[in-house]
What we know:
Layout: H1 30-40, H2 44-57, H3 62-74, H4 78-90, H5 95-111, H6 115-131, H7 135-152, H8 155-169, H9 177-198, H10 203-214, H11 225-236, H12 240-247, H13 255-267, H14 271-282, H15 289-302
Amino acid sequence: MKRFKSALFFILSTALFAQTGARQPDTEPAFAKQAHELMHEGKYPEALAIFQNALRQAPTSREANIGAGVVLDLLQRGAEARKYFEQAIESAPDEETRAGANRSMAISWAFDGNCQMTVQYEQKVLDYAKAKGDYYRAGEIADEEARVCMDTGDIETSMVWYEEGRKLGLQEPNLSQARKDLWDFRFANAEARAAVRSNEDDPMPHIAAAKAILDRGTNPDQLQFMPALTGYVAFYQKNFQAALNDLQKANQNDPFIQCLMAQAYENLGQKNKATEFYRKAAFSGIHNPAAAYAIPFSEKKLGIH
């Protein structure tokens, strides 16, 4: 299946806990650079062939195993993808690299809509973060698996992990007020989404709580997530025009947002716009929790695979 040339390709870094901010040296092998260029051009099968050829020469290559696995997930060939991720896990030279490979495996299960298997592999990453004393990252990983479970409809499991994520995040040494507000905002955001999905609670007080936290001004970078939240709630309340109005103010490069917008357009009878946004989501080329929901859903809508 030919892919759009605008498709983006992001390999999950196996150096999951590396410090951010500093420019990292370019150590990517030549074959990986070539494969990534093909991915940018939308040529997934050709990129896969390069990764597989590299593996014939070096079966334990981290870059080739992770790369092949990611491409196969994007092609909706998850069972095949996980063979490569398993090889990356088994041949990892250290615990940090193994944590990255386990996270890739978790996302692979997310692409299959499997909450429990996602949790199983994310737990390995979370345990590594806790062992390193990195409670912020541990909280983020817990939130990541919670998000996958929410998207698959397992609201109860999702909230267990959102609660655990907040608990872990608050254990960060010398916790700042901004960081505390961040975890409180994320949890209020999750409560609002869980409420509208379960129909057992009113999401509006949780939205108000989330807004009040952001109004303190300690986390200005989180402001972008308010229209995503209110659009999400409006969507599940079947107020599709209101959902679109808010989602259009959210991150337009997020495949999950694109997929929700496509569904809103579809429900409003705007077939051409729905197709446009399903295509954006389907061909985003991203391997993360947002894409794990959006890509399979959008490809099914478009009749791909």
